[in-house]
Design brief:
Elements: E1 5-7, H1 13-21, E2 26-28, H2 40-50, E3 53-56, H3 59-72, E4 79-81, H4 94-106, E5 114-116
Parallel strand pairs: 1-2, 1-3, 3-4, 4-5
Length: 117
């Protein structure tokens, strides 16, 4: 089964649109008015409820949320962590990030709860 992604608020909806054009189930926080101003813990909970993996550069906050979920034995949202150095944001890099995420989604290997792009 293909992963369903939720792009954190710092990612352009154009990335989600580009991935949807390739047949992937991806939405951006900025596409969802109810999530636009939510704190990270709410994004984490909503991603879990929607069955989506959070794609984020906010490594420290989301790893903390994942760790807290493990400690409390509560449902987790899976994470795909992205380095801003390897995959910078901005209009000039939308296509590159779409390509990288599409390759990750296409590779078909089993997935851990937390991975790096």
């Amino acid at each position: 089964m293909t992963e369903r992604l939720l792009l954190d608020e710092h990612y352009s909806p154009a990335i989600a649109a580009g991935l949807r054009q390739r047949g992937f189930d991806v939405v951006a926080v900025l596409d969802l008015p109810a999530l636009r101003t939510c704190p990270d813990d709410e994004v984490f909970r909503q991603a879990q409820a929607m069955g989506r993996r959070v794609v984020t550069e906010n490594v420290s906050d989301f790893l903390k949320l994942l760790s807290q979920s493990y400690e409390r034995d509560t449902p987790v949202a899976r994470l795909l962590l992205v380095s801003a150095k390897s995959h910078p944001r901005g209009r000039a890099h939308v296509g590159t990030l779409v390509d990288a995420l599409a390759a990750w989604l296409d590779d078909g290997r089993p997935r851990a709860d937390c991975e790096w792009l």
